[in-house]
Amino acid sequence: MPQARQASPPGPPYFSYSIAITGGRPTVDEDIPVCAVLLFIYLLGAVANQIIFQRNHRKGHKFYMSWAMFGFCMARVGTLVLRIAWATRSTNVRLAIAANIFTSIGVLVIYIVLLLLIMRVFRATHPSLGWNKFLRKTVRVSYALLGGALILTVAFTILNYYTLNPTLKTVALWIQRVAILYMMIFNIVAMVLLLLSWLLPRTSDNENFGTGSMDSKLIILGVATFFSIFIAGFRMGVAWSKARLASNSPWYDSKAAFYVIEFGFEIIVVYLLLLTRFDKRFWVPNGSNKPGDYSRIDLDSSTTRTSSEQDNASEQEKISE
Predict the structure, then answer these.
(1) Predicted local confidence at residue 11, as pLDDT
(2) Coil, strand, or helix at residue 19?
């Protein structure tokens, strides 16, 4: 989270414990047990996603979002390792900076994965709108802007720790705020597309994909997106709040809020996707780029064949007759 709300301690780098920060200063007694449990949960999520990805890959079933969730879980393992290290070396400023930066950037993987899944649902329920070229380009630009927001957040967070110049610190604060605001907008756009998928009357050319019904996909994504927006909203609220002393820290800087919202809600999303087998439920044929492509392969069939293969088979049967 942005740290421009700090005083000016000796440095560089400059890191003040007199100003409240999200999650507070970690301690051995309070934080290490919690971090150890969370680390174990994320590690299990990473192992499960990697096993599923490798098994699917060997079968030619390409679903790279499982690999992305593996990477996200491993990033969170690294985040918690840094926080544990910070708790044992409370005066190490560089550890504190690294722990805070890693906490800020990891969740972007969830934002991207959810929008990708929502776009698949929107294209299936409303092909003419979902495959619109303008929408496709807009979504691609939104991914690029999210990457830019990530870079700006990290760069100006680091800058804030290494300068005492009031102008630079103010600029860093506002750039971080705008970047986090964009992340919130990114999540809102995803929710809007999901609501449109549900509320707009489905066209006659709508299709399903993967396993399970379309309604089950909408419910899963609705729950996951709710928690994603909550995380983004919480971060935006903290970033735009006024600085307060650590001795009078607000509820949103407490350890309980930090661990429940920052990590607990992420874990719900990770295991919701994992346990509902999103690798099968949201799988689409490789190379899908136009209406009708999502349903050209029946994933539930034990003998999966492309439409062209089916046509060839029928022609051969006619010849043999």
Answers:
(1) 63
(2) strand
| Spatial contact of 115 and 186, defined as CB atoms under 8 Å apart | yes
DSSP conformation class of 243: P
CB within 8 Å of 45: residues ≥ 6 apart: 69, 73, 267, 270, 271, 274
Q: Which amino acid is residue 191, in one-letter code?
A: M
Q: Helical H runs in the chain?
A: 28-58, 64-88, 93-105, 108-125, 127-130, 133-161, 166-199, 214-239, 255-257, 265-275, 278-281, 307-320
**Side-chain half-sphere of 306: how many Cα atoms within 13 Å?**
9
Give pLDDT tens digits for 78-95: 999 999 999 999 888 888
Q: Which amino acid would we find at residue 94?
A: R
299 three-state secondary structure: coil
- For residue 67, give both structure tokens: 């690999």
At 206, list the tokens. 């709508």
Q: Average pLDDT in the 148-153 region?
A: 89
**Are the CB atoms for 220 and 289 separated by under 8 Å?**
no
Burial class (CB in 10 A: 0-12, 13-18, 19+), 103: buried
- Asked whether 271 and 73 are in contact (CB, 8 A), the reply is no
Question: What is the number of residues in the chain?
Answer: 321
Residue 198 binned pLDDT confidence (cut-offs 50, 70, 90): very high
